[in-house]
Amino acid sequence: MSDNRTAMLEKLADLDAEHAKAVAGGGERSIARHHGRGKLLPRERIELLVDEGSAFLELSPLAGWGSDFTVGASVVTGIGVIEGVECMITANDPTVKGGASNPWTVKKIFRASQIAEENGLPTVSLVESGGADLPTQKEIFIPGGKLFRDITRASARKEPTVALVFGNSTAGGAYVPGMSDYTVMVKEQAKVFLGGPPLVKMATGEESDDESLGGAEMHARTSGLADYLAEDEHDAIRIGRRIVARLNWRKATAAPTSWAEPDEDPEGLLELIPSDLKEPFDPREVIRRVCDGVSATNGVVFDEFKPLYGTSLVTGWARLHGRPIGILANAQGVLFSAEAQKATQFVQLANQTDTPLLFLHNTTGYMVGKDYEQGGIIKHGAMMINAISNSTVPHLSVIMGASYGAGNYGMNGRAFDPRFLFTWPSAKSAVMGPAQLAGVLEIVAQQSAESKGQPFDAEGFQGVKAMIEASVEEQSLPHFLSGMVYDDGVIDPRDTRTILGICLSVIENQPVVGTDRFGVFRP
């Protein structure tokens, strides 16, 4: 077994352990208590909701990693197929503090809403939440209103919203079923009210109970908030599936009818990425293991564009699950002026032909130095970023290795709103590499001491330098970045083709239309 494969398998084992924490929710005792009440867990509800045998693409499973909150942010989000319709699904995890929303819950749902909007997806919410996590309300209350805004705007865009209420949906959470197009409540389980009996007693002096104040049957018979009254959780899921089946949903683009598996085994992806990201690797080997094989592409897997020019950036055309894509992939890490100009032209061509773009990151950023500055690296990098910023075809990004500095921007990092962005366990992303950043700070500290006429304690600074380097290293790792919801998930490289295939299918819910309008390109 190669060193690269061994290192990657170790990272994947760590990733599996972190995903297991998210699946564990509030822990064994909480799960047993929940099951003891005759209730299903969020992923069990999702499994019954989606079509049998279909895939569920879970998003941001590590949200909240490294924070004070349980990994997963007490909510499950992802894309699943219901009655043949791709839907955004959100499901509160009631085993984590009763499904209460914390700051990371809000960020994770914001991201799910953004994906639903950009790709024109219906949304199905599986609701069981005690509302906001009160100790952190200052981080939830003000921005949290966007959740309700997004629900109503989705309805206005004719992107249906469905709420299946399995338990508590109280305080601000009551507006999720209240603002959804369709609301299903489970008899003797769902409780939807702005204020529970204790709050009503304090506010008005009125004595009331859960059922008369916000029970499912009351809302079905009296208030009219419930459109459907379900006998139990399985019945609620059955009704939810029937609602989606009646949406008369049609995708903008017909799915391809045939494709070929890659000619190279995706298992080989574990061998490609060096454990030391300073070592280059050929991204064409990734493309051969992710894109359709020759039998589906007229004998050519990858039609490379400008192969002899700007060789540290590979660009070209391919198919993935039968769908055409343009690819920009870093080869040797550094982006020079030629690479930036090549990328700019390629992005324009993709927009001209309404072709989605896939960015495969492994870059240390744009080249620095006197000759490169005088040669126009800033204006050429700005040209590339201009083209990518204003491109209107869907963008997908996969961070395979390094994604440092403005190279992250030029290769369509999170700030540039790719439709989807995933990272491999080998990925690192920061303003620059840890050693470089610590070294820069050492030079700055030395120059500062000299400007004040003071001696610089180089030996003493080594401890500070090591601490800075370790901190930057930790904060550039994929688990940390995924915990911040800076990607849509850390994935096994071998799953890349399948995940990108799902994403390209989701994109087809909206027309793919390129632009011919870009900002001013500085000559």
Helix-strand makeup class = alpha/beta
CATH-defined fold name of the largest domain: 2-enoyl-CoA Hydratase, Chain A, domain 1
Q: Radius of gyration, rounded? A: 25 Å
Largest sheet: 8 strands, mixed
In one word, what is the shape?
globular
- What's the multimeric state? single chain
Proportion in helices: 40-55%
Query: What's the architecture of the largest domain in CATH terms?
Result: Alpha-Beta Complex
**Spans of at least 5 consecutive residues with low confidence:** none
Strand content: 15-25%
Span between termini: 50 Å
CATH class of the largest domain: Alpha Beta
Mean pLDDT across the residues is 91
The CATH homology group name of the largest domain: 2-enoyl-CoA Hydratase, Chain A, domain 1
Kindly list the characteristics that best describe this protein:
523 residues; alpha/beta; 2-enoyl-CoA Hydratase, Chain A, domain 1; 2 domains; eight-stranded mixed sheet; seven-stranded mixed sheet; 20 helices; 42% helix; globular; AcCoA_carboxyl_beta; Acyl-CoA carboxylase subunit beta
Architecture overview:
The protein is built from 20 helices and 17 strands. With 523 residues, it is an alpha/beta fold. The strands form three sheets. Strands 1, 2, 3, 4, 5, 6, 7 and 8 form an eight-stranded mixed beta sheet that branches. Strands 9, 10, 11, 13, 15, 16 and 17 form a seven-stranded mixed beta sheet that branches. The protein has a two-stranded parallel sheet with strand order 12-14. The longest helix has 22 residues, at 3-24. The radius of gyration is 25 Å and the shape is globular. The two termini are 50 Å apart. The model has no long low-confidence stretch (mean pLDDT 91).
